[in-house]
Amino acid sequence: MSDDGGLITRLPFRDTRLPVRTRVADLLARLSLDERIAMLHQFAPGVERLGLAPFRTGQEALHGVAWMGPATVFPQAVGLGATWNPELVRRVGEAVGREARAMRARDPRVGLNVWSPTVNPLRDPRWGRNEEGYAEDPCLTSALATAYTRGLRGDHPERWRTAPVLKHWLAHNNETDRDTTSSSVRPRVLHEYDLAAFRGAVRAGAVAGVMPAYNLVNGRPNHLSPYLREQLRTWTDQELVVCSDAGAPSNLVDSEHYFDSHAEAIAAALLAGVDSFTDHDQDASKTIARVRGALERGLIDASTVDTAVGRLLTMRCGLGEFDECDEPEGAAGGIDGAFDTPAHRALALEAAEQAVVLLANDGLLPLSESGVRTLAVVGPLADECKLDWYSGSLIRRSSPREALAERLGADRVVFADGLDTVRLRTAAGWVRVPDAGAEGERPVLPVLRVRSAEEGPTDEGPTGEGPADEGSLNPAHTAGRTDLPPLTVGDTPTELSLADWGGGVLTLRAPSGRYLTVADDGFVRAAAERPGGWVVQETFTLEAHRDGHLLRHMGTGGYVCVAAGALKVAERDSDAEGTVFRLEVVERGEDAVARAAARADAVVVVAGNDPHIGGRETEDRTTLALPAQQERLWRAAHAANPRTALVLTSSYPYAVGEAADALPALLWTAHGGQAAGTALARVLFGDISPAGRLPQTWYASHDDLPDLLDYDIIAARATYLYFDGAPLFPFGHGLSYTDFSYGELSVRRAAGLTVACEVTNSGPCDGDEVVQIYASAPGPSRVPLPHRRLIAHRRVRLRRGERVRLFFTVPVEDALGFWDVAHGRWTVDPGTYEIHAGASSADLRATATVTVEGPPPAPRPVLRRGLEAADYDAADGIVLVDRTKVRGDAVARRDDAVGRLLFRACDFGAGATSMTVEAARDAAAAGAGAEDDATVGVHLADGTTLATVAVPPTGGRYTYTTVRAVLPTSPTGVQDLHITLRGGLRLARLGFSG
């Protein structure tokens, strides 16, 4: 009976008084097997008889709620990384979570299982998805990911505001062939770098799960990663959901050919720990059929399904879906929704301000309103507020030109976009865009002034009260407009604005402001408000042909032709030859920029990238160079007016050494969201002192980088941790309008390392300093260690003359430890270490030492444990491969190279008399009749050969044999061991006996 005497009708799974585990078990027992299987797909159907609504895993929310219509747009993730401010990032996550709740209340398509943040360390700045990560350093990445997920999750002890899923598990930094390439990741890099970025956020308890990446690691697809079980789920007691990436389950068969059937693939993924399958968009039938096939073949049983569904239901229960509550969704326990509030607008501005990095300044900045009567604002991004693939739609926007014109007055700002003005001519006439009347009026985006935090909030402008009618669950399905007339040829040319984004990739913009684009019918129209889409339809390239050029549309690969007087893209496989176009340059962009610069007292050149072009998801960069057209712009501006500042607004670093040497001021900011322009204006004119810091190294040239697919940062000497060269700008770099001095640094070792540091604002104005604490091992070490590594940081605001003493506590293992491959554990070697405090990884202002006592490191106990091949100390000419399809690593030679492995300090005791080699050899790789061309050679450092073992064909790459060899020379004591691999074999381990 209830308290009022009525019958209790509440089902246990809806009873908030019961433990979550009990509630989930009750609901799971009420579901039929068919209902449970259906819940494994991303789009889980409702169960009407139990009152369960449909549920969708996956809502993009990287820097604002994305894909579902208007929302507050914060700086890109790499821009949030540049703030070095976990507390700010937590507040951004909180705002995004509240907006997701508010938007869901209006539109149930908005999901609460948010797929963000991306925590892959930014190992290589050429990665197309560089904009999505926080930093190249795992410590900084982990701190910011923890903060963002805490904001998304909320503070309620039981109810989650949203359920964040970390992306992309694991070692994923390339878009090139991303679903078929394998990242070769040695154990030290795995534990110290890739896993480290995920570990902190998961342990903090604010993460609902992870999403595996498209790539393979050591030859095994990430959707079968044994580390989901061996690492991820050991870091926390809570249930974690693993959501597949889109289409990745099918890739296991279709592109990766890892399994012969989809039933085998889905069974293996479920057994590895994948719980939700994002495949075939909203069509769940194929996933359901594959699970049923796996059950019928006995590859899994119902308990496997129950385990995955139980995790999904636990997440849904935490979101409050099953609660019986009279309050509106999300209102209980402080998990209320809030959308486009004054506080969110002020936060977007604050984040954009904190993300600006002053790279160089020779006294030009800050500008003075009284000293700058006329300001030239020029460049292709000077009047832009760019979005990326994971942005929401802008409710309001602020470009640099708009913000500076508002500040100074439009009559004091001279603008030139720096694009070339061109005409295109064919044999049939000039290319022309139909007149404005035929083309229709250009929609005007709402452009609202973004107020500063000091001005306080405002309620002006749209509030986004309506549902996200224009939002899409999958914007990749958005079709181009066909309601506007296509381009034609005639007697009168239309002048077009040509932007060259590098690598010959062009966009063409009509006088109306619309971009030339191609819709499904193949016609070329001036119909796009901006470049965008999963396959960008607004990019072209000119290819020299006879006395002109062919115009190729990059989205389809076809050439533009004149057909019946209109421009149309020919089918890629057709025999139609493209029309020859002659390009006439009416005015070069640099000439217009030079004129504007000459008229001004100072110049701000705004250059950078369009996030949809030349470096984005599916497309890596091949160079760090600024596009040539943009290089010409800053040079022209500087030649006309030496008081020129270059602002790089981009998703990634550039190699701009000549600009850094020539120009008096250089700044970088990621695409800063809706308040980007206002934030930049406030920094330029000194309303705030810039304090953003680089979250990744800026290299002097792409020649300083290893191969994009080389994930071994230790051997490749990559990232600031191991890079031996001189960077253009180091990790953590960023200047200020004020100065900071560092006092004495002290380090005390107790439960952890306690670091105390005194910092004083000794400059002329208030400002923020980002105090960075690094650790290094100055003496010789038995393994290669980082030059220095970040172990703690804090962004602190100091008034002019203010002094503060800061304290940091870091576990000793996190600060000084490394993964010891010799013993398979974290270790801290005894010795003297240095702890540094400074303004960047290369600007260390104070140093203290700390000594770790203990016995010397033990050698490898090879007689007792043998040697796992993947646990080498150094290697050359090898790749790590999957030992089995389930778990474990083996070593194979790379291509036709001779593979070499080094194992240091192997303890053979009184002597080893025999050796075993565990290896596999695919018969197809062996070649007919060749049974002795695959060998494992073993020798000592002095060249003494212990054995050369031939590995016979074993019947397959996962079929291992053990070959025993007698050692004619018995190694004794502690020796370095060298292994040589020849032929198509996979080496799993070596064993020794006395």
Which terms summarize this structure?
disordered N terminus; about 1000 residues; alpha+beta; 6-stranded mixed β-sheet; 22 helices; 8-stranded antiparallel β-sheet
Segments where pLDDT lies below 50 for 5+ residues? 1-8, 328-334, 438-472
Count of discrete alpha- or pi-helical segments spanning 4 or more residues: 22
Class based on secondary structure composition and strand pairing: alpha+beta
Work out the helicity level.
10-25%
Determine the strand fraction and express it as a percent band: 25-35%
Distance between the termini: 75 Å
Give a quick account of the main beta sheet: strands, pairing sense, barrel closure.
Answer: 8 strands, antiparallel
Shape: globular
User: Number of DSSP strands?
Assistant: 47
Characterization of this structure:
The protein has 994 residues and is an alpha+beta fold. Helices cover 21% and strands 26% of the residues. The strands form 13 sheets. Strands 13, 14, 15, 16, 17, 20, 21 and 24 form an 8-stranded antiparallel sheet that branches. Strand 28 and strand 29 form a beta hairpin. The longest helix is centred in the N-terminal third of the chain and has 21 residues, at 86-106. It is globular and about 90 Å long. The N and C termini lie far apart (75 Å). Residues 1-8, 328-334 and 438-472 have low confidence and may be disordered.
